Structure formats: structure tokens, C-alpha cells
Amino acid sequence: MVALLAAVEEAEFAHVRDEIEVSDSVLSKHAGALEATGYVEIRKGHVGKRPRTWLRLTPRGRSAYKAHVAALQEIVAGSGLSLTRD
Fold it and tell me: Which of 47, 62, 70, 78 has its Cα between 20 and 30 A from that of 84?
């Protein structure tokens, strides 16, 4: 979910659910946990008369994601492998 949100400004709940192939309840639980840490913002609204929910990474979440990716890159580099296709 975080990798998907890192690539966009915000995404509709249904789009995230479909892309990462989880149920509404699983996504809702994880989004709520990330919201509690300050990593994700959940915005609710309507499109016409239909309720919609949007998710976006907060600056704190984006920073944590970048740090996580950097740590993973260090692990891979230390293994002697490359992150690029050879």
C-alpha cells in the first residue's frame, strides 16, 4: 500500500484495494494503523451521492518510506547483488 501511495498524490480506496488485491476490511485495518502512526491520511467525501474514501501518504509517511527503501538498498548492496537487471 505504501509503495503504491508513494507514486501518487492520493488514491481512491477502491483503487488501492484492487491494486494490492486485498479485501476492504484488510485495507481498512492497515490504513487505520498507518493513519495512527501519522504515515497515511484518510479523507472521506462524496462523488455525486456516493461516499468515497481517499488515501495519501503524509510527509512523515513519505519520509519513512524513503528511509525504508534506502535501508533495503543497503542490504541488497551488501549482499553483492545489484538492484538493476544485468
Answer: 62
Whether residue 16 contacts residue 4, with contact meaning beta carbons closer than 8 Å, is answered with yes
Phi, psi of 42 (to 5 degrees): -110, 125
DSSP strand pairing (50-57 vs 40-47): antiparallel
Q: How far apart are CA 41 and CA 36, in angstroms?
A: 9
What is each CA distance from 7 to 25, 28, 52, 62, 79, in whole angstroms? 23, 20, 20, 10, 27
Q: What is the pLDDT of residues 38-79, one digit of tens each?
A: 999 999 999 999 999 999 999 999 999 999 999 999 998 888
DSSP string covering 37-52: TTSEEEEEEEETTEEE
